[in-house]
Amino acid sequence: MARTVRIGDRLVGEGQPCFVIAEIGINHNGDLELAKRLIDASKKAGADAVKFQKRTVEVVYTAEELARPRENPFGQTNGELKRGLEFGHAEYAEIDRYCREQGLLWFGSCWDEGSVDFMEQFNPPCYKIASACLTDDALLRHHHKMGRPVILSTGMSTMEQIRHAVRVLDTDDLILLHCTSTYPSAPEELNLRVISTLIKEFPHHPIGYSGHEVGLQTTVAAAALGSCVVERHITLDRAMWGSDQAASVEPQGFERMVRDIRAVEAALGDGIKRVYDGERPIIAKLRRVGK
C-alpha cells in the first residue's frame, strides 16, 4: 500500500480523497489581478491547491534564446516575454496573503535553484518539479535540501530516468505524477495505464496524474485508475493569449471535473462485496429462490 504524504493540513495518498491541483502556472499573463481571479475560480471549483511556476530567467534560458525575436505583449523578444511573465516578491507576497485568506494551499514549480531559494521565504507546503527538470540532478538535490514534500511530474521521461530521479530525491515524502508533455495531448498519447505501472513500480509513493489534454473524461478516468493527485491547468478563457491556455480548463469545466472525481471516489467503494439495505426490498420482491 502506498504511504501517505502530508501537504499542509492534508494527507495525500492511498485511502485519502484525491488531491486536486489547479495549475495557474503562467496563465496569469503577468497580471496579479488576473492571478487572483484564477485563485477565486480554483477555490470555487473545489481545488485543494493552486500552483504557480517560478524561473530565474537568465539561468533557465540562454542569452541566445532570450534574444530570439518573438512578438508578444511585453515586447519583441523572447526575453521580454519570459521576464514579463515572472512575478517577483511583491506579487508572490500578495498571492501568499490572498491564498491564506481564501483557505487555499499554494506552491510553485521551480525551474532553478535560485527560484527554490526564493520560494522558501513563503514556507510552501511542498514543491512541484516539472517534467522538464526531472533529469536535472543538481536541482533535485537542491529540493531535497529543503526537506519539504515533492511532487514530481514524469512527462517525456523513461522509466529508468524516473527511477534515477527517485533515487536522487531520496525522500519518503514524494508523489509521482504520470504525465505526457504535449500541449494539448491527444487521447492516444495519454497512456493512462502507466498510472497502474507506476503504482506497481513505486508502491511506497502516492501516484497521481498531471494532464494537458482537451476535455475532462480522461482526467476523471485517471482518478478511477488510482491517481491520488490530479493536476490540470486552469484558465478563465481558453481563447486568451498565452502558450498554456489551449491545454487548460475553464472554471465551469474545472468545477465539473472535481464533481465527477468526487462521484467516482464515492462509487469506487472499498471492493468488499456486500448486500446493501436498499437491495433487501428488491430481494423480497424479485428473488424467488434462495432468499
How would you describe what is shown here?
With 291 residues, this protein is α/β, with parallel strands linked by helices. The chain has a single domain, classed as Aldolase class I (TIM Barrel, Alpha-Beta Barrel), CATH 3.20.20.70. Helix content is 39%, strand content 19%. The chain is built from 12 helices and 12 strands. The strands form 3 sheets. An 8-stranded parallel beta sheet has the order 7-4-3-12-11-10-9-8. Strands 1-2 form a two-stranded antiparallel sheet. Strand 11, helix 10 and strand 12 form a beta-alpha-beta unit. Helix 1 packs parallel to helix 5. It is globular and about 80 Å long. The mean pLDDT is 96.
